[in-house]
Amino acid sequence: MRILVVEDERRIADFLGRGLQGAGYAIDVAPDGATAIQFTHDTDYDLVILDLMLPDMDGLKVLERIRGRPSGPPVLILSARGQLDDRVKGLENGADDYMTKPFAFVELLARVRALLRRGQPTPERLQVGDLVVDSLRRKVTRGAETIDLAPKEFGILEYMMRNKGRPLSRTMIVEHVWDMDYDGLTNIVDVYIRHLRSKIDDRYPEKLIHTVRGIGYMIEAPEKSANKPESGNPMHAAG
């Protein structure tokens, strides 16, 4: 999942970025309101963490622009403005939650997870065939076997399973899983798909990860993939 942090104080932005990346999220940081508005226009975020005291505009104006979009992400305001009137105003203007600085990161992370669960229509237990992902515990099993995945592998698999049966381009995967712009170097997705296939497909007769030629990849149970894209063989990983 991808989170936008709108924060002009570099120390706080770096702290949030490291902590959220460590929790498995892809992070973008906007140092001002104009950049935040542009980022939300260009990228579909799962959550926005928004400071109100920005150098170029009030954060409430950014909130207004986000809420003006047909389907905007949930917004968590994180601000030093902690008076009751400020909190009420933020929530009345469309924020989903409001935290004041200074803050405990463990509490912020709990609120982030709660907002992501609220905004995510898919369940936390994801299943395709006999492959099961527990998003809360970050646990992956296929049949009776537990599968250990690296953080990026887990992020790709979770994103694919939340979109099972839907072809996902390499660019879409990069934008939702990585915390930087790879400027077209989306072949890194092919490398990670090979890693995933070696762990969740190669030892099993039924293959779940399918190559969609000219697009990217999707995950789908075998019984639903007849006459659909080629699947399972790592030699197809490069598309």
Walk me through the structure.
- It is a single chain.
- The chain is α/β, with parallel strands linked by helices.
- The protein folds into 2 domains: 2-119, 3-Layer(aba) Sandwich (Rossmann fold), CATH 3.40.50.2300; 125-236, Arc Repressor Mutant, subunit A (Orthogonal Bundle), CATH 1.10.10.10.
- It contains 8 helices and 12 strands.
- α2 (33-42) runs parallel beside α3 and α6 (151-162) packs across α8.
- The longest helix is centred in the middle third of the chain and has 15 residues, at 105-119.
- It is elongated and about 60 Å long.
Describe this protein with a few key phrases.
single chain, 239 residues, alpha/beta, Rossmann fold, Arc Repressor Mutant, subunit A, five-stranded parallel beta sheet, four-stranded antiparallel beta sheet
Assembly state: single chain
- Strand arrangement within the widest β-sheet reads 2-1-3-4-5
Strand content: 15-25%
* Structural class based on helices, strands and sheet pairing: alpha/beta
| Total strands | 12
**H/E topology pattern:** EHEHEHEHEHEEEEHEHHEE
Inertia-based shape = elongated
CATH superfamily of the largest domain: Response regulator
What is CATH's topology name of the largest domain? Rossmann fold
Indicate the low-confidence ranges by residue numbers. 224-228, 230-239
Largest sheet: 5 strands, parallel
What Rg is obtained from the alpha carbons, in whole angstroms? 19 Å
* CATH architecture assignment name of the largest domain: 3-Layer(aba) Sandwich
